[in-house]
Design brief:
9 helices, seven-stranded mixed beta sheet, 240 residues, 24% strand, alpha/beta, Spore Coat Polysaccharide Biosynthesis Protein SpsA, Chain A, two-stranded antiparallel ribbon, 11 strands
Length: 240
């Protein structure tokens, strides 16, 4: 396997979570959410570098210190942007140019499994770009909101996939796609969307229910239940 650099956009304000503490600093089975997200990649031999884009470098540093000294050396911090895509760009530009492959992972997805990382990394190498995704099981209606609004159509869900991270692509492809992006970066809601806008192929691989994104307090409670069901090995991931 080639080496990868992992980009962690972590400059959001966590407004939907509520409360005085940023969701990334919430404690999940003894470790901060951000620490768990970092640990999942820092422990891997094929990950040479991790770059966090954040508006709170002191808090990020505190999370990094919860990792082993060996894992801490892989991580650097850069200022985040005003939107997700800008944070990803700042992190990507800070990676070592000798590392061909970049993986973008949500800072608020702390339960990513090694098996899922393996699947996405391998698919990216095989196809040029890949991302984790889950099938959409709900019926989706298209309408112009806010509600109440008239239904325009029912969207066939057999072709719909809810995106997760990691999302992996070549460093050169990501930076070039950002440079020539035909829409404002603030309107980019998904990392591989940048490649799609350049008509570059992106492949999806099966994600995991446990790879949830912590957005609200109820998500944190669900993550705690997932960890409890997984047992002590997962709970004590990569202790210092």
């Amino acid at each position: 396997m080639p080496e990868f650099a992992v980009l962690i956009p972590a400059a959001g304000r966590s407004t939907r979570f509520g409360g005085p503490v940023n969701k990334l600093l919430q404690i999940l089975a003894g470790q901060a959410v951000l620490t768990r997200s970092l640990a999942a990649f820092a422990q891997r031999s094929d990950v040479a570098q991790i770059v966090i884009a954040t508006a709170d470098p002191d808090a990020a540093t505190d999370c990094i210190r919860q990792l082993s000294p060996q894992d801490q050396h892989k991580i650097k911090i850069v200022p985040g942007g005003t939107c997700r895509a800008e944070s990803v760009r700042e992190a990507a530009q800070a990676t070592d140019e000798s590392i061909e492959w970049l993986a973008v992972h949500d800072a608020a997805r702390p339960l990513i499994s090694q098996a899922l990382i393996d699947r996405v990394f391998l698919a990216a190498i095989q196809h040029g770009a890949a991302a984790a995704a889950m099938a959409v099981h709900l019926t989706i209606k298209q309408a112009v909101g806010p509600l109440p609004a008239k239904v325009q159509r029912t969207v066939p869900r057999t072709e719909l996939w809810a995106m997760q991270t990691p999302q992996v692509m070549r460093r050169a492809d990501l930076l070039a796609a950002m440079e020539s992006c035909p829409i404002p970066l603030a309107d980019v809601t998904d990392d591989v969307q940048l490649l799609e806008l350049q008509n570059q192929p992106v492949w999806l691989v099966e994600g995991e229910h446990e790879n949830l994104k912590i957005t609200t307090a109820s998500d944190l409670h669900l993550a705690e239940k997932f960890l409890a069901a997984a047992g002590p090995a997962q709970t004590e991931m990569n202790p210092r």
